[in-house]
Amino acid sequence: AAASHPPVIGGVGVEMFQRPWTSIGAECGSTLGPAGFSWVLTSPPQEHITGSQWWTSYQPVSYAVDSKLGTEEQFADMVTACKAAGVRVVADAVINHMTAQGAGTGFAGTAFTKYAYPGLYTPKDFHHCALTPDGSIQDYTSRAQVQTCELVGLADLDTGSAHVRTTIAGYLKHLLGLGVAGFRIDAAKHMAAKDVAAIVKLLPAGTPVISEVIRGSGEAVQPEEYTRIGQVFEFQYARELGPQLKAGVLMDPTRIDEVPSKDAAVFVDNHDTERGDASVTYRDGSLYLMANALMLADDYGTPVIYSGYAFSDPDAGAPQGPDGRVIGWDCAGTTAPKATYADGEGVCTEAWKSIAGMIEWRTAAASAPREPGVSQGAAYGFERKGKAVIAANPGSKPETLSVPTSLKDGAYCDVIADGPSMKGCAGGATVLVSDGMARFELDAGQTAAIHIGAEPHN
Ligand code: LM2
Ligand code: CA
Questions:
Q1: Is 418 in a helix, a strand, or coil?
Q2: What CATH number should be reported for the domain whose range is 13-234+301-351?
Q3: pTM for the full model?
Q4: Going by fewer Cβ within 10 Å, which terminus of the chain is more open, N or C?
Q5: Measured between alpha carbons, how far is 156 from 124 in angstroms, rounded to an integer?
Q6: ipTM of this predicted complex?
């Protein structure tokens, strides 16, 4: 018998990076639910080392749900508020490792030393690889190094051991008990796929997970090994799309070096790539909006929008109060990208009306196939057959583009300019369809999109 596909979370997600539980709970009702997001990915909720940098979240000290992002009670309240708004919560599960820091007291007061975490792990629960001089990963062509040595010096859990597996699963089950729907598996590449599978098997059947396995050509461990467990984040997607936008030359996707659509979670950027090799980020304004709109228009993978904060220091954490808790921010009312952001200011991608408009567009497109694209100068567009059309101009001068479509004649609302259109074009931006062509007039950097549910106005 054919193996059934592992559970998929589906819909459109949003990573709300370093947002306190109270902020996310509020926005589920004000912003995420109304915009049509299906789920929100939180930053790691467990106790972590102290410090102002954001990445302290990725050095677990214990599995107490008490962190700079909030208490367990606040976490549970967030899940309740999000559920009421139709939004599921996915938690970032940091389970490959504990701290790199040698000793200290964690955010919630747990005293630890590296390899000894009270009530959880003792030195025998770690790999202590002897493959490199300092025990850290050096060679990504070595599977043994990648999976049993230390990632940037982080104490590497022996995920082959029964005690470690049940301890991790206990933590994840605790989060499920608080109402989370599924998990991002942080640093999945650094755990053998069979270890991740064994841990997920200890969870209730049907729990969706998305493994973070950064694709690297020539590396020993590849994302395809993890698709029997759940979806994987497909890093190749943004690597193909972003440079095309920057070059002003959009083309139909090749899907080379990408997992099958049903196995993929895709993104324009995330908290690591916006500090690393992402071609397009919040700093690119209209091109960033364009990249996200094209991703939402695509027929590949589960799209994940990213919402972080502006920074010039890549280590800088989100603004914290004197108690070390992140203060948080509320994006309700922020309707478009800004030209510039102050350090620490929320980017608020999830609140842009263009994003809500494109989620509506995506729902209208449903399973309609993506037709081959057409170009005029730098402008490029395509139809999701009979349902929806998008056009984008990443170039530096205006373009006129006609995209073949089977939508009936009329003037359609542009959901990029005006947001969700089911109730009419608020701003009056329309695109004309006649004689089987949608005719777009696009300024430099402009994206426009129409769909069958946007009532023709003529
Ligand atoms: C991930 N996915 O696999 C996260 O998405 C990524 O953000 C995490 O790294 C990483 N894996 C480990 O969970 C971040 C951050 C690193 C940071 C680590 C640990 O990108 O820069 O490393 O969290 O906090 C930091 C320092 C680094 C130092 C390390 C150990 O930046 O310079 O390395 O701590 O002290 C010696
Ligand atoms: Ca490992």
A1: helix
A2: 3.20.20.80
A3: 0.98
A4: N
A5: 11
A6: 0.97
